[in-house]
From TrEMBL:
Species of the source: Enhygromyxa salina
Family matches, as Pfam families: Sacchrp_dh_NADP (PF03435)
Entry-linked PANTHER family: SACCHAROPINE DEHYDROGENASE-LIKE OXIDOREDUCTASE
Protein name: Putative trans-acting enoyl reductase
GO aspect biological process, one term: glycolipid biosynthetic process
Enzyme Commission number(s) of this protein: 1.3.1.-
Domain Saccharopine dehydrogenase NADP binding: 12-142
GO cellular component: plasma membrane
SUPFAM superfamilies referenced in this protein's UniProt entry, alphabetically: NAD(P)-binding Rossmann-fold domains (SSF51735)
Molecular function, one GO term: oxidoreductase activity
Keywords noted in UniProt: Oxidoreductase
Keyword Glycoprotein: no
């Protein structure tokens, strides 16, 4: 039976509010929604830092001076229980999630508290499914991973195209997503998560299998579909008219999309296929760009695993708590193109195209927007999805799609030209 959240003290608690991305999420909520009608609390492990953050936030909204502060520790279950039982939703930016995230998931799953995060750590998601999905289903807690640039453009973009086919009386069968023009920086938190994944994969070969297996986030017992491993080399997509290369986050995004399909009772079909890559443009310039991206991708994992290069990268790259400036974030953007194949109401082949765009740095400005709107959807929208360890599309679907459009993101469907 789902937990009654009507008497909870807060609507949303931002866990990790004093971190780089956590602060951006809180700023987004204040700048775009304000505190009228939103019972928000800031949470973290250092009260002094929380107080300093609250003081800074008064420049956005003087009412922020009254924001409640909650103190806890990622490895202290009692402190996390105390936070989770006071709120409808916990919105967390504390990573690497495989290192710091499980006790919070466990608290929320047990207490019926909805949860959203920014993880791109497939091995963490798989563990949370195995260990906490049953408790979340029983309590009604919606545990929603990947609510940022990983993997909302992929997951909600595919859902949008599924709905477009459905509205035309047809059925989507295959979606290809191409991440194209992009400008953005990396924060120390994202880099720390990537390094932690590399360390876990080096220690435990099962982690590597989870990372590369196309259906590793499928519900237990479901037979795999037709997709193979993610693109590893240079290809030309004739429908798109561009050269393509591997996309670094396809390893999580594609698995999330496939899990959404399964959790939506295979609304996209049991033979549904999903692929994701980087598009580098047409002609010789596009070919050379695809070759360069492929070369960098091929060198990245060995560089992270080899001691001397790993140490050099750690010295050069941003540290946790660091990230691009406001000016850099506002100059960022991303464009993703989707091509969906399926059949129309008569069973004839039909192709639709989609476009997803963000007007800020994808990993920070747009990610703060996507996570903030996900938390608001979980707190306020009349969702029909059950509890469990879930995905954005299978949990918030139409509600999140409309929220993101209203927040300034582009999610657009086009008939084939």
């Amino acid at each position: 039976m789902s937990t009654d959240l009507s008497d909870r003290e807060f609507d949303i608690v931002c866990w990790g509010a004093t971190g780089f991305t956590g602060g951006l999420v809180v700023e987004y909520l204040l700048e775009h929604h304000g505190l009228k009608g939103l019972r928000l609390a800031l949470a973290g492990r250092d009260r002094n830092k929380l107080e300093a953050l609250r003081d800074r936030l008064t420049a956005i909204d003087v009412a922020a001076a009254e924001l409640p502060l909650l103190v806890g520790d990622s490895h202290d279950r009692a402190s996390l229980d105390a936070i989770a039982r006071r709120t409808k939703v916990v919105c967390t930016t504390v990573g690497p999630y495989a290192k710091y995230g499980e006790q919070l998931v466990a608290a929320c799953a047990t207490l019926g508290t909805h949860y959203c995060d920014l993880t791109g750590e497939v091995q963490f998601i798989r563990r949370m499914i195995d260990r906490h999905d049953e408790a979340a289903r029983a309590s009604g807690a919606r545990i929603v991973n990947c609510c940022g640039f990983d993997s909302i453009p992929s997951d909600i973009g595919t859902y949008m195209l599924h709905r477009a086919f459905e509205q035309r009386g047809g059925q989507v069968q295959r979606v290809r997503m191409f991440v194209g023009e992009t400008k953005g920086g990396a924060s120390g938190g994202t880099i720390a998560s990537g390094l932690y994944i590399a360390d876990e994969a080096k220690r435990d070969r099962s982690v590597l299998r989870t990372l590369v297996e196309p259906y590793s986030l499928y519900p237990a017992g479901e037979p795999p579909g037709r997709d193979k491993r993610d693109q590893a080399g240079v290809r030309k997509d004739d429908d798109l008219g561009m050269w393509t290369a591997p996309f670094v986050m396809a390893a999580v995004n594609a698995k999330v999309v496939r899990r959404s399909n399964a959790l939506l009772d295979f609304a996209y079909g049991r033979d549904f296929r999903y692929e994701e890559s980087t598009s580098t443009g047409p002609g010789l310039k596009g070919l050379l760009g695809a070759a360069a991206v492929t070369a960098v991708m091929s060198a990245a994992i060995p560089a992270l695993s080899f001691g001397p290069t790993r140490k050099l990268l750690e010295k050069k790259l941003p540290k946790p708590g660091e990230g691009p400036s406001r000016e850099a974030r506002e100059q960022g953007f991303f464009v993703a193109r989707l091509i969906a194949d399926g059949v129309d109401a008569s069973g004839d082949l039909m192709q639709l195209r989609g476009r997803v765009e963000g007007v800020n740095d994808p990993g920070y400005g747009e990610t703060a927007k996507m996570l903030g709107e996900s938390a608001l959807a979980l707190a306020f929208d009349p969702l029909s999805s059950p509890g469990g360890v879930r995905t954005p599309a299978s949990t918030m679907g139409d509600a999140l799609l409309e929220r993101l459009r209203a927040a300034g993101m582009t999610f657009r469907v086009e008939d084939r030209a």
